[in-house]
Amino acid sequence: MPPDVSLTAVRKSRPRAALSRLRRAASLVALPLLLAGCASGGPSLLGDALQGLLPGDDPAAERAAAIPFASLALDAGDRRGLVVMGAQAGDTTLWPTGSGGLITLHREGLQATAGLPRDLLDTRYRPLEGDAPAAGHVPWHEATPGEFRLERNWQEADGTVVRLSARGRLACRAPEPRELPLASLALQRCEQRLTWDDGRVTTGTLWREAESRRLWAVAETPWPGGPRIEWEVARPWW
User: Fold this and answer.
1) In whole angstroms, what is the distance from residue 108 CA to residue 13 CA?
2) Is 102:23 a contact under the CB 8 Å cutoff?
3) What is the maximum alpha-carbon separation in the chain?
4) Residue 23: is its pLDDT beyond 90?
5) 169: which of 28, 46, 198, 237 is 20 to 30 A away, CA to CA?
6) Which phi and psi (to 5°) does residue 184 adopt?
7) To which H or E segment does residue 234 belong?
8) 47 CB neighbour count, 10 Å cutoff
9) pLDDT tens for residues 142-166?
10) Quick check: 34 and 48 in contact, CB under 8 A?
């Protein structure tokens, strides 16, 4: 079955409106911090960080060690480097990448992007069986992850908005050492396989802490033909 690209105006606007609200939230948090830096006699380190990827040639670990704020080491193609959290609303966090760019995580997983050549607009998970609400379900928070359903909306470079669903499976191994920018932790390596309704398959690797089930690192292709997006937690926000 070909992907459903004939979305109504209402369905098209919903993920964009959600992303717009998140951007405004990030701006409202970042602005007073930036102004505080100016009032103290010059731009603050946090102010610089909130404007996007941190400048400099030092490795991400060195920059993260020098900055006492929640941060990620990000590789999203043309957006690569250390990013600092700009805002948090419940389980959702926003990470400005500069020039209007933004990475949005929900419960540590990729929710949306902005500023890339092709952007993820929205992500929704639901269990394959059962009555758990989609808004409260992410597979990596399950004690024993299994199969699930996923729906994503994304925008192609020509502006076309695509909506497609997938049947997913997440399988986690026993904890093993994993090097992160500022620590070495025992994490479970979880392999994700998404079989999309049009027959294509994408994969990802998620690293989670076994007790809390929080994600510390992810490398995934969020949709068929989409970009490879990877990140590692440098300083956690929880």
Assistant:
1) 24
2) yes
3) 60
4) no
5) 237
6) -120, 120
7) strand 229-235
8) 18
9) 999 989 999 999 999 999 999 999 9
10) no
pLDDT of residue 35: 30
Q: What is the dihedral of CA 45, 50, 51, 54, to 10 degrees?
A: 60
- Amino acid at site 95: W
Distance CA 82, CA 64 (A): 7
d(CA 25, CA 189): 33
Q: Which fold has domain 9-231?
A: YmcC-like fold (2.40.360)
Residues 154/159/161/167 CA torsion (nearest 10 deg): -40
Kindly report the length of the chain.
238
d(CA 206, CA 87): 23
Domain range list for the chain? 9-231
> First-to-last CA distance in the chain?
41
pLDDT of residue 63: 87
Please count the other Cβ atoms lying within 10 Å of the Cβ belonging to residue 40: 10
Average pLDDT over residues 89-111: 96
The predicted structure's pLDDT at residue 60: 79
Give, in order, the Cα–Cα distances in Å from 152 to each of 25, 124, 166: 22, 6, 9
Q: How far is it, in rounded angstroms, from Cα 85 to Cα 61? A: 16
Tokens of 76: 């999203």
